[in-house]
Design brief:
It comes from Magallana gigas. This is CCHC-type domain-containing protein. One of its GO terms (molecular function) is zinc ion binding. The protein is mainly α and 338 residues long. The protein is built from 16 helices and no strands. Among the domains are: 94 residues, no CATH class; 84 residues, Non-ribosomal Peptide Synthetase Peptidyl Carrier Protein, Chain A; 47 residues, no CATH class. The longest helix has 28 residues. The radius of gyration is 51 Å and the shape is rod-shaped.
């Protein structure tokens, strides 16, 4: 070895594994493969960690060096960059490396951006008209397990996205597990309940927020229109009954044959012939004229019964008292002489 070269050993994951012909790990890997973890939001770090530990047990990777080396070989993309940026003490033991990986990729809270995105995708899942129920069931299970949803939430999501008739069939069965919900839905599909109503297309990604808002707004408008139509039918129901003979006669007077009033309130005096089209200018009833109105006859009688003012022949009140102006002028003159 030349002088001046650094003798510090370099970490090589492949050198930590035993690739001898007697214990060939690559041959075992061909039988039991583990997908590499890239660290994207669509991947589940917790599931990968559990699968990797099972992989280490199967391959008898018991030492820290062998586990760290195998873990390094199953990383790619952003996860591999994260691993290379770790300090050497963190990568020295499997315990410290596992804790660092859990903190980075497997420990996620409800406000984590990745979890928020996954939750939006879960809520946007819809059953397509030609999509198999098993495929939709598996997608809900995949997204729900990543979000650590309880089984009752998975059942509720699955049943709510089914067509109305099929969803009612599943609810009446009172399913106890997510698997039972799928079996009951397949049974209802065999009976033809799925084809009775249309379904919305499945959304594979996050939909814009306004699409759900518009759909809910349209449903609200339809419900309001139905409610208004029902109320109008109730209001029109009493007036839709057939009119009896008494109802038809209520608007016509039997005395003058005029419409709009009854005989007991008719003001026609009975003189002359009734005129059904004539309208009185005094009482505004139809069926007689003003000359034939009872109110006109009453006024005429009262006027004739009033006593007349008696004055001397040829003398009237104006000639005796004079005009109004003369009386006022005389009163003014009296005030002056006083």
């Amino acid at each position: 070895m030349e002088a001046g070269l650094d003798d510090t050993p370099v970490f090589n994951p492949r050198s930590s594994l035993n690739y001898s012909r007697g214990n060939n790990v690559s041959s075992i890997s061909d039988k039991v493969s583990l997908k590499k973890f890239s660290g994207f939001s669509s991947e589940n770090g917790k599931n990968f960690l559990m699968e990797f530990e099972s992989f280490c047990i199967y391959q008898n990777l018991t030492t820290d060096d062998r586990r760290v080396a195998a873990f390094h070989l199953h990383l790619s993309g952003p996860a591999l960059i994260w691993f290379n940026s770790l300090e050497i003490p963190v990568k020295r033991t499997w315990f410290t490396l596992k804790n660092a990986f859990t903190e980075q990729y497997a420990k996620q809270g409800m406000f984590d951006p990745d979890m928020v995105a996954e939750s939006a995708v879960f809520e946007a899942l819809r059953l397509a008209s030609s999509q198999p129920l098993e495929d939709f069931h598996s997608k809900i299970m995949e997204k729900g397990s990543r979000l650590q949803k309880p089984e009752r939430d998975l059942i509720t999501k699955f049943v709510n996205e089914l067509p109305d008739q099929l969803a009612f069939f599943v609810r009446t069965a009172s399913v106890k597990s997510f698997k039972d919900a799928l079996q009951q839905a397949k049974l209802g599909e065999a009976y033809g309940y799925r084809s009775l109503s249309a379904t919305a297309p499945m959304v594979a990604a996050v939909q814009p927020a306004n699409s759900n808002t518009n759909q809910g707004h349209n449903q609200h408008l339809f419900s309001m229109l139905r409610d208004i139509s029902h109320r109008l039918e109730k209001l029109e129901a009493p007036t839709s009954r057939p009119r009896t003979g008494r109802d038809r006669d209520l608007s016509t007077c039997h005395a003058c044959r005029g419409p709009g009033h009854l005989k007991r309130s008719c003001n026609w005096t009975g003189h002359g012939s009734p005129k059904s089209q004539a309208k009185c200018q005094i009482c505004f009833q139809t069926g007689h004229t003003a000359a034939e109105c009872r109110m006109f006859a009453t006024k005429k009688t009262v006027r004739n019964s009033e006593p007349k003012n008696r004055t001397a022949p040829g003398i009237n009140a104006v000639s005796v008292l004079g005009s109004k102006n003369d009386v006022l002028n005389g009163a003014d003159k009296c005030d002056i002489f006083q």
